[in-house]
Amino acid sequence: MRLKRLGELCKRREGLEIRFILIQNRAGKTRLAKWYMQFDDDEKQKLIEEVHAVVTVRDAKHTNFVEFRNFKIIYRRYAGLYFCICVDVNDNNLAYLEAIHNFVEVLNEYFHNVCELDLVFNFYKVYTVVDEMFLAGEIRETSQTKVLKQLLMLQSLE
Amino acid sequence: MPGQRVFLHSRTLPVRMVAPSLKLQDLIEEIRGAKTQAQEREVIQKECAHIRASFRDGDPVHRHRQLAKLLYVHMLGYPAHFGQMECLKLIASSRFTDKRVGYLGAMLLLDERHDAHLLITNSIKNDLSQGIQPVQGLALCTLSTMGSAEMCRDLAPEVEKLLLQPSPYLRKKAILTAVHMIRKVPELSSVFLPPCVHLLHERHHGILLGTITLITELCERSPAALKHFRKVVPQLVQILRTLVTTGYSTEHSISGVSDPFLQVQILRLLRILGRNHEESSETMNDLLAQVATNTDTSRNAGNAVLFETVLTIMDIHSAAGLRVLAVNILGRFLLNSDRNIRYVALTSLLRLVQSDHSAVQRHRPTVVDCLQETDASLSRRALELSLALVNSSNVRAMMQELQAFLESCPPDLRADCASGILLAAERFAPTKRWHIDTILHVLTTAGTHVRDDAVANLTQLIGGAQELHAYSVRRLYNALAEDISQQPLVQVAAWCIGEYGDLLLEGNCEEIEPLQVDEEEVLALLEKVLQSHMSLPATRGYALTALMKLSTRLQGDNNRIRQVVSIYRSCLDVELQQRAVEYDTLFQKYDHMRAAILEKMPLVERDGPQADEEAKQSKEAAQLSEAAPAPTESQASQLLDLLDLLDRASGDAQHPPPLDPSPGGALVYLLDLPCAPPPPAPIPDLKVFEREGVQLNLSFIRPPENPALLLITITATNSSEGDVTNFICQAAVPKSLQLQLQAPSGNTVPARGGLPITQLFRILNPNKAPLRLKLRLTYNHFHQSVQEIFEVNNLPVESWQ
Q1: For the AP complex mu/sigma subunit domain, which residue ranges apply (chain A) (predicted)?
Q2: Interface TM-score (ipTM) > 0.90
């Protein structure tokens, strides 16, 4: 199963670019939640539910950008998964769209034609991939080759 | 199942005597096997109990697996705080597997609000200084995700050291960790600023990306840093230029664009550095033009770079030609088939429309096309932008488009569209007729969505366009005949038909098809409005008053109208009932005054009270009909004599004249308009008459906000021994002035200083002509009938200058 495109926007706060990254499926189950900003547990739950509600009602007729609270969400849907990044309203939507796709392509390579179940059973590895590509709410490494090399290196240590 | 499953660890575990703990994979399978939410909860609670027991027993071998399971459960939304201490233990362990899960746990479960988080500081410190690279990487990552201010302060030296390490893997992480630390502890900027310039010389993309992000962060936080980094603008320009022309490495190229992320980041930094700084802006101009023209726009990556370039051009002091180029790029985006790109283009154009109006105007046709978008956020932006682009030269074409849009637009945009059209029409209407047509169209299409003052505005507009009265009333009649549900339209139509009903029946109007309307049809229509359950109370009020006015405009007898009016005397709605009673009284007792009261209204001043003119007018008329006696023919002719002595007046063509052919006489002393309470003014009072203890005084007030207006209050006092009864005061002024009398406070002045009578005269003197005033008094005093006619002398000059 190939993952198709999804886009999500990250929110920025006080100079922070990305507020959080979420991967959710259509039913609302979280497959990955990376927070670059401090939230309470119940706030996190609420955000997850809100993002799910906002994003799942949209279809191909809509853009990949959603105004959300006082931020923006850039999302992209790949098969049954929504990849959402939350950013500041002034950020470059198109660039983050590329970032999402970059990330998904790396996942694809790493898991060899990735599907949702791969993300489920290897959730901690997905976090590793995220941490290789994004750090402190910023884009860290954009070369897919480099990231994959690093991931394989880490894997060999286990 | 496609794909391989990678197990958490490949070693087999010794079997425990007590229930064996599940492997992570098995737990996941079990959870997924649960059919209902309740079942899932049960499975998870059972497992959490096991995990808790295991933590209590302290099993170092399986700890990481337990924590991993706990983290998975946490991701599904279940509480996992009891695993916090375990994270610490795992981080402190020497095995990579342990550390890995431990750090992940720390990132997910610990944050700076828990005191426990400080405990990992030491472990991180150790790992940063002595660990192997991957471990250092883990530590940096964790620090940058959940590091609190204290932790950052403690660990800054370690991170700084790692910045200068040879390994790019670690340096990338260290740089971005530094970004996080600066956000938490701004004072650390001084630590991380010096290495930046050196780091810019790197060729490694990841390091460059991180460095630029770091510099951006530093500049955003401190103006001193901003100044410092302006020096590197040429260097940044060089880096970007090389990227665009030759590219550093193919592995960073995305869709043929070399490292778009790095380009975007550099452009953003250039924007911050060039803002409000001539010199830096100039250095960038050529480069920006180059990027703008050379970037491949067939894929999203290129468009992302182009978009960032446009944002930068608009923000700095760029050459005019460059700005036009930027706007044109946005215009091209509007034609792109990718919806996302159209979205960013519309958003940016909206920001630019004020500052670069003419450049954006060129793309007006494309913007108007975007009104047809299916995505609501796009069509909304297109609407805002279209409204902003309306000007006097394109107003007709634009209004056509916008009105077409209004007919088919989604409901939540209707109100904005309607009010936008009305506003634009007000500002740019080429002719009054066009304006009236436009408003009519809006009212017919989206009547329920217009703002409340639309009705008042339209009546004001129509009232002022005397040449269009016939046209307006016809069009409104037609519209009303078709549909009586849109309240604003019905109200305006009713008002118009009432005012200009005579023109409606005339049959000829050059601008519109001849329409044969007979009186019965008009009355029937108004009655229909009155009776319809769709009509609001205010609307019915309009209709009733219109019917009443028609009683003087139409030729036929008024039986039908009288019938309707008397039916509504017992209406349950108090407002309608009151009107009906007043109108009925007009028919019965004051029929001779009916025409005067129901004359065409003078033009309401825009700044004047916005209240329903109908209600006030009829209320005043009702009051007056109690107070003022009926003028007889002789009095009317005597008033004319008064006028003769001044200047013969034949009616003012400027406003719908208050002097209309009617039995009421040449002067209108019944018609009233509400006026604001007069502010104090220092014109001295004037005693104008005295006879046997009866005295008449004039006091003058000129309201500052209306220099053409003069308010005179006459006060009649009685110091004699006999009462004064049936006191009437009438007045006349020269032709160029307009006079209106309000009802006197009474017509009796009791003897010996009893309560005086006061009456207010309103005189409009726009040409500042010299004021002359002639008064005629009649009253009974000492059983004698007294009549006095005289001209007031010594009128103070301030009263008319």
Answers
A1: 18-157
A2: no
